Amino acid sequence: MVKDLTINIDEKISSVKFFVDEEFPHLRVKNHDLCLQCRDKFCLNFCPAGVYRLDSQGRIIVGYQACLECGSCRVGCPSRNIEWSYPRGGYGVNYKFG
Amino acid sequence: MNKYLYDVVIIGGGPAGLSTGIKLAQKGLKTLLIERGRFCGAKNLFGGVVYTSSIKEIVPEFPEVDPSPVERPVTEEGYFFLSKEGVVKILHTKKRADESFTALRAKFDAFLSEYALKKGIDLAPKTKVIDFIRNNGFIEGVIVDRPTSFEDPSPATIKAKVVVIAEGVNRLLTEKAGLVTKTFEPEEVVLAVKEVLQLPKGELEARFGLSNNQGLAVEIFGEITKGLPGTGFLYTNKTTISFGIGIFLKSLMDLNLKPYEILEYAKLHPYFRELFKGSETLEYGAHLIPEWGIKGLPKPYGNGVLVVGDAAGLVNPLFREGTNLAIYSGLMAAEAIFYAFEKGDFTERSLRRYEELFKDSFIYKDLVMLKDLKTFLLSNSHLFQVYPEMIYDICSLYFSAQGRYKRDVIREIFGIIKKKRGYWGILRDFVKIGRFLW
């Protein structure tokens, strides 16, 4: 539907302030085999931060560092295959405007 | 063993949690508010507009507070119907300028938390509640992701007679407390993405025809969401613009669309491209809006626990209410807590008072009235696609009818209606909308 347009989500995300928790990722794919079988891979598109991407082998990579903590992937994954929690206290997105 | 003991612990420093806290502090209850962000507001995002009457309930001196926590008074409010080519606007100049204000949550929520602190609550920022202290079906406090002390690295526990869950739309703790049996579904939430745009100095007032103390609040239908069920929004702040879209997560998934592409596409629409010329994106953000309504409502009370605000799903998308409902629910929760303290009973027998107050309020009645809204919108998605285009095309003909035989113009207008929806289609839509709202 919006084919003639490629948006660089990284550019948008660079406007957002994060305190990244380098020790504990707050998002995790529970079972990568399920993702490999998943034909839809909705998460690649609906995630407003582009957290979910594919590596060269077609595996899902989770860039939790840029997560806006909206919660879409928690319910949008058809197999509920994403372990979802908020980042530890003080970490994660830190809006200046909001 | 427990170093920390409170009358009430509130989870989440948004308007729902903070209004609960402010009210409780007024009666001297020892209250702790736990916020996982670095400050209250750091995690929060909305369109958005805040409503004076609700704020006055907790901050009576509002809007006469300095520095102001809000952006501009809403003096003009209305709708844009966006077609591919242009826009038809319906704007209403408000009778009273101080009824509502545009706001940005990092500032607004931080203001409320400062206010709550002054009233005497304790605030623990940068702290996440990971679970509850449970005892025989009772919630007796919370466990947080911070160590108990220098000597004791185990997670700190904080005891309280009542725990108020004001965690927001992702109701993880509400689920953990057993007050809701299932997670919500993609058709029960709207995913909103928003940008805060800065225009060149002086351009905001010039382009929107506003003076310094005037502001605009607009909802946008049609091409802005590519005709999908949802809306766009535009609010003028002091020196910036809040511009965004909200679309049902289910609709995005059905078509495998990226929300930020639709937003960018909207910014490139000829009308907005001109309006936002030379603008800079100061911040991008995203948030879910709970639209599960009455059917997905959690049980709002339990033994030693209450649920307020977005966590309960208190949003009225049709009338753009959210923060005000959060505040009112906080007030009702506080009242129920006073009642429980009077009785010295913190079981659900007395905390049920919250649900009684809630069911008597307009919030509950509205939720009942709009119980089928999301089903209605999702099953009538043509409303978002057909009508904005049709309205624009009709206006295009009408406003350029000069020098022609008007009967031909009128016939052409009817031709558009017939082609886009058909007379019967329109009649059916009107009846459907009428029956829905009645």
Key features of this structure:
heterodimer; A: 98 residues; alpha+beta; Alpha-Beta Plaits; two-stranded antiparallel sheet; 6 strands; 20% helix; B: 438 residues; alpha/beta; FAD/NAD(P)-binding domain; D-Amino Acid Oxidase, Chain A, domain 2; 3 domains; eight-stranded mixed β-sheet; seven-stranded mixed β-sheet; 17 strands
List the helices and strands and how they pair.
The complex is a heterodimer of chains A (98) and B (438).
Chain A: H1 9-13, E1 18-19, E2 27-29, H2 32-37, H3 43-46, E3 52-54, E4 60-62, H4 72-76, E5 82-84, E6 92-93
Antiparallel strand pairs in A: 1-6, 2-5, 3-4
Chain B: E1 4-11, H1 15-26, E2 31-34, E3 49-51, H2 52-58, E4 74-82, E5 87-93, E6 100-102, H3 105-119, E7 122-124, E8 129-135, E9 138-147, E10 155-165, H4 172-176, E11 189-198, H5 203-208, E12 215-222, E13 230-236, E14 240-248, H6 249-254, H7 259-267, H8 270-275, E15 280-290, E16 301-302, E17 305-307, H9 323-343, H10 348-351, H11 353-360, H12 362-369, H13 373-379, H14 382-398, H15 406-420, H16 423-437
Helix pairs in contact in B: 1-3, 1-9, 2-9, 9-11, 14-15
Overview of the structural elements:
- The complex is a heterodimer of chains A (98) and B (438).
- By secondary structure, chain A is of the alpha+beta class.
- Chain A has a domain at 26-93: Alpha-Beta Plaits (2-Layer Sandwich), CATH 3.30.70.
- Chain A is built from four helices and six strands; from the N terminus they run αββααββαββ.
- Chain A has helices at 9-13, 32-37, 43-46, 72-76; strands at 18-19, 27-29, 52-54, 60-62, 82-84, 92-93.
- In chain A, the strands form three sheets. A two-stranded antiparallel sheet of chain A has the order 1-6. In chain A, strands 2-5 form a two-stranded antiparallel sheet.
- In chain A, a hairpin with a 5-residue loop joins β3 (52-54) and β4.
- The mean pLDDT of chain A is 94.
- Chain B has 438 residues and is an alpha/beta fold.
- In chain B, β1, α1 and β2 form a beta-alpha-beta unit.
- Chain B starts with a strand and ends with a helix.
- At the A-B interface, α1, α4 and β6 of A face α3, β9, β11, α6 and α7 of B.
